[in-house]
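Q: What structure does this chain adopt?
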Amino acid sequence: MIAARNGKRQSARLVSVGSYVPERVVTNAELARIVDTTDEWIVTRTGIRERRFAAPDEAASDMALIAAEEIMAQAGVAPSELDFVIVPTSTPDHFFPSTAAILAERIGARGAAAYDLSAACAGFVYGLSQAAALVESGLAGHVLVVGSDQLGKMQDMTDRSTCILFGDAAGGALISAGDESTTGGFLGFEIGADGSGADLLTIPAGGSRQPITAETPRAEACIQMNGREVFKFATRVMIDSPLRLLERLEMSIDEIDLLIAHQANSRIIEHAVKRLGIAPEKVFNNLERYGNTSAASIPLAMKEARDLGRMRPGDLLLLVGFGGGLTWGTTIVRYEPVSPEAAPA
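A:
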């Protein structure tokens, strides 16, 4: 791939979305047979009723491949036309090569630049910001962003505070160049991180700080979370980040057609909906069926909203993500498929 500014003014267009979820459904009742919990306890505190777990031989790239194939087919763009493949993930196939490089090869995007992005559950919005910048700068015509995470494999199944929360999925979008005079595109981004909260949501072992050895306790290689503090962070940033962006764009929340937030906890989303003042019918959630799928959660919800006719061509979307790091990201973008037929009702 050769990236060079072409001198043309172009906008970044959200062309298509797609997703994949594994076959295995894990209900709250099944978890209640493993740890001291109940369906009522989980639903009351999180809103989650079930989640999907990947098969033992299913990796992040396997899930991303199926999502990517749907995304490309919906857009009518050949993989050979891709300039960049970005995979936001916290659970890559390997430290290296990148899952994105593996995905690019498997879909036939040979020669496209490819890299993984680590921003936890805010990774998809981070990826969109990079895709938009690449397209709007003239360095790319088509950028594929696919979040793929298998946090189900990174859980301590004896820790009821975390094992009830996470599931596995892949989801993403194609960002393509559009004519500036006719493309609404991305109106703006509000993205940030607060590393002072790095230890609030982490997998301690597995990196250069604490390599895994034969003596490493299983719990050290699993998700560890300070639930109370993460909840406080999430409820704050879910309000502050969108409001900062709306203020910068001199927009009202009433102009938004659909809010899709990171699917982490129903109480976080409900709190934000009330504080932001957006009508509940303008909010789409699928948390109860999939749990927290990290970088895949927003595009997974976008795809389902599209299929149900809740996300229509021309709609102005407010997307909000937050996660470990601590990271957060908000964008406002218009959904502009190539044709109405590309967005089934």
